[in-house]
Amino acid sequence: FWAAFSVIFYVLVYSIWLKRSTPQNIVIGGIAGSTPPLVGWAAAESDLQISTESVALFFESITEMGSLMPWFMFVLIFLWTPPHFWALALYRSEEYGKVGVPMMPNVKGAERTLFEMKIYAILLIVLSAVSPIAYGGLDESDILYHVLGWNAVIMSAWYASTIWRIDLDEVPDEDGRKATASRSFFDSMIYLALVFVMLVMSSMGVSGAVVGALVTIGIIARIEWTKRVSLGA
């Protein structure tokens, strides 16, 4: 179901309708981009069945995954999508304008775009704080609960900092592109990848979560150090 829903929603709703009709295109269209965890989880759970006995049972059967984790990942990607693509839109706003795609910076302005990006960044931090709940069976007495939760919050706070560092007053390059928006865009992809690395490592227990935390924080530290060196040069 979710695979078919994703394809139909992306092609018909997002690509054909939303993309060129509203600056909220990637917000609503992000629903399709957020479904891969649901598709993968449903495929892995062999005992899931779709019920057609009634509308209520149908919706219950397609939303009950046996775990909160796929829905946590769905919400994570959904909240990540707007600031990710709006950073690209700030970075290449003139190019979107030339082809008639109504992205937020072209329609609502850069300041409004950055403000909404910050809202989504805050929501990602809040979501990260409850990430241990998605695993189920964890409580505050578990070490894994704290390692996973704090690591998720630290990573989301780091990503939020890349959004806060976008400078709308910086001088664009010769192509009209803003470097700070570019850095946030590329960092957003690293952030999402690291979150999934953390989730996989945490599924291996406390030792896996600790290793995952060291790896992800180490990568973030390396990225920030590289930025400082390049900016200093």
Concise synopsis of the structure shown:
With 233 residues, the protein is mainly alpha-helical. The chain has helices at residues 2-18, 25-33, 36-44, 55-63, 69-91, 93-98, 104-107, 110-129, 131-135, 143-164, 179-202, 206-232.
User: Percent helix among the residues?
Assistant: over 70%
Order of helices and strands: HHHHHHHHHHHH
Mean pLDDT: 87
**Main sheet?**
none
Residue stretches low in confidence (pLDDT < 50, at least 5 long) are none
Beta strands, count:
0
Instruction: Tell me the span between the first and last alpha carbons.
Output: 52 Å
The number of distinct structural domains comes to: 1
Count of alpha and pi helical runs = 12
Radius of gyration: 19 Å
Characterize the overall form. Answer: flat
Percentage beta strand: under 5%
Specify the structural class.
mainly alpha
Describe the protein.
The chain has 233 residues and is mainly α. It has one domain (67-232). The protein contains 12 helices and no strands. It has helices at residues 2-18, 25-33, 36-44, 55-63, 69-91, 93-98, 104-107, 110-129, 131-135, 143-164, 179-202, 206-232. It is flat and about 55 Å long. 33% of the residues are buried.
Task: Describe the secondary-structure layout.
Layout: H1 2-18, H2 25-33, H3 36-44, H4 55-63, H5 69-91, H6 93-98, H7 104-107, H8 110-129, H9 131-135, H10 143-164, H11 179-202, H12 206-232
Keywords:
flat, 12 helices, 75% helix
